[in-house]
Amino acid sequence: MNSNSKSGKKNQIMKVFRISLLVLAFFALSCKEEVVPFGPQHQKLVETLLAGNQSVLEQFLKENPNPNWKEFSETIQSLVASDHPKLRSWGEQILTHIPTDPTDLESSYEKISKIQEILIQIRSEVPNQLKYNRFYCPMVDKSWLMTGREVKNPYAPEMRDCGELMQ
Predict the structure, then answer these.
(1) What phi and psi, each to the nearest 5 degrees, are found at residue 33?
(2) Where are the domains of the chain?
(3) Buried b or exposed e, range 88-127, using 16+ CB within 10 angstroms
(4) How does strand 164-166 pair with strand 142-147?
(5) Which of 1, 18, 122, 142 has its CA at 20 to 30 Å from residue 157's CA atom?
């Protein structure tokens, strides 16, 4: 084989490689997830979800907590049944963290914390959810969403005022 034919084959291989790379890049860019806007009905679902969360957290502030997980789970089911892909995904994630034994407060605190992380993300992405504020307690390294500006820590019964309002 002479050097011209080797050089020609190399150029042909490089040309095929470049074209393949361009085709791959095109497909990668076209597979980007479609951004679906949150309409008024989606915002209303999230309002209901955050109100349900408020009710659950208020129960944890009581002397003998008895949160209504059934009612909260029904609200989550509305998210799962939503026509919005992100709301469905968030709803499915939250369902995995609903406590199975509400009397086991220690495991409930951990599950609530995971739920709060998802709710904080929802609040940041879905418009018109400013009624609920994010709080953070450095002692337990956990966040939560509640109305108002007063710290009411649902994680630490002995330190209900431990935490800060996050901006």
Answers:
(1) -60, 135
(2) 40-129
(3) eebbebbeebbbeebeeeeebbebbbebbbbbbebbeebe
(4) unpaired
(5) 122
